[in-house]
Amino acid sequence: MKRAIILLLSMLVFAAGCGEEEAAETSKEEPVEKEEVQEKDEKQEKTETDWWKKEVESYQLANLPRELVDLEKELVIKEGMYSGNSYDVSAAKDKLNEMPTDAEEAELESAILQLIREDYHQEVETFVTFDPTVQINQDSPNEEVDKPTTETAMSTTHFAILLDASGSMNAISDGTSRMELAKEAIGDFIKILPENSTVSLRVYGHEGTGTDEDKEKSCKSTETLYNGEMNQGKISKALDGVSPAGWTPIANALKESEKDIPENASNAIVYVVSDGIETCDGDPVAEAEKLNKQGVQPIINIIGFQVDDEAQKLLKKVAEAGRGEFTYAGNKQDLDEYWQEEYNRMQTAWEEWQQEGMKKADEISEQLMEQAEETGRSIMDKSDQEFEREEELINYLTNEREMENADNLWSKFYERSTTIWSYGYDNQTKNWGEAYENGNDAWRYFYETGNEKWTEFYNKMN
Fold it and tell me: Which interval of the chain is the signal sequence (predicted)?
């Protein structure tokens, strides 16, 4: 029994000894783990507090016409926390106080910029995408005029003349047939057309006779007798060969006249000279609507030569469908007056076109110049403001915190400010000048072209 008690006590002593050893070992390991955690936390805290070492993000500008140069890449870096109207010199100094006294010059430079760097990204985007072109989208009486180019210089107005050659044009008026009077009036009209215009002469109803037996043949008849540059001699010769014959297929003539308009024509005016209504069961109103919606959307004017009241009503509907006008001509004098009114209309239209074009040229040019002026001024003002604040913070670092590595910062920031200021000034001057010159070119184009066209019509009318 005594032995058993002694054995039990021995085992308890042994167990206690093992427990103390394990506890001792554990206590030896704990300080090591705590030191590692503490060191880790200190590193993380240091990383978070060293804000001047962080990489600053930049604005991403999309759809630029070219790559940014190095200076522009610098200018699209996001603004500092105390830039612009958010400037707080006390708060900025407090942030600088977080930096060690022996901070490197590059770190100090980065810190100041992260505090008060101005936001230039919108101005940079404006200059990089700036287009000084004075583009004026304005329809002229005779051609599409944006900016004078080879394409617009080659474009012309096409005048399509559709002449009724049905048998009724043989009727005598004032001792002369309607056909001869129409030919003479058309000839006078052609004389004063713009030199760069093109003309087509199409006749309809010129085959067969006015009998029922020839109706199908006559209603199918429409033919282009001339199509090309304005040439009075050739057109007059083509007119000489026209003789009145059959029925009146106005609808068919309108349908086929689309083929007469050249592809490079900038616009077209169709003149239908007729002494009667459609007699071939066609639908001239529907054909006029279709023609007006094709290509350059030609305007269709109807000249009703000695037509009765019923015919006038029907022909007016055709003109309205073609967004044109109907004019009644009771004799040769009426026809001549109609053409004279057309000349006056063109002359007035050119004058209005000229004035509107010059006005738009001035307005667009001034808007572009103002944009260039304001953008450049904004960059220069921000550069000056940024440098003033940089100087204030540099003085604080050198005088109050006595940081030796801040001694050369002034020259660095002065060079930065000068470079940015020059970027704003140079681009402002360049873009302003180009907008001014382009505005002058566009203004002169409308002035000179308008005068030339107006004089051209004036000389031909007198």
Answer: 1-15
